[in-house]
């Protein structure tokens, strides 16, 4: 049991020496873990970054691969690719004279992704993993009316649930952003309450822009937007807008034209959980355990939902 004045996540990681901060859902998810990674580095810990990659990593040179399905991305990787969040982050890190390697994990099923994580854990002697979701759909257990985009998030959870690492945590930031993908945040709150009852919810904390980590996050998101203007991150753009104090229907990209966004202060808060608890609550995790391809994950989730007698309807947050 920790004290109220201590940050719940960093209290759990106090004895960790080598931490892997990994984006769970692909795209720019690793950026959602950047404030945590920077804070851990400021505390003197060795921190490594990884991300489930939506970018094309198959064509990277042979010497870029740490293991099957794990590519080592540097600021100079694949200069011809326009969309490459891992390289863009590596370039930002280099600009700030920080270790500038980001590991790109192939978008595969549970079994090969677990092997990829195992290779990372063993290579760097990792003693703690923080799996970060930009959004809240990683907390959906499977019977909700809308799941968002769960395939990559829960593949990552399942992969890490089968590994022996002293500390495994899930951090979710961006509360409200998944409304864009049909998630009911009333159900998100219900799920967090259930995780609290299970003893798996570790608490929450914000990322103020007045902190050096908050300011660095804003700078990294702005840098990514300038480098990839055709593919701005809706999630991290929304979180950054919230951290800056924006509110309501803040439109910063044409990708959201026609949708009403609800940028709000809760988007800048990390909700932290034990990964094992999140894994236990997922109703279909056993069904995706033996998958090798990401499309198998999607079809298994779809089959599970087809068998449900009913789905939990969306819950309105009173106002």
UniProtKB/TrEMBL annotation:
One Pfam assignment: DUF1152
Family annotation (InterPro entries): DUF1152 (IPR010581)
Superkingdom of the organism of origin: Bacteria
Name of the protein this chain belongs to: DUF1152 domain-containing protein
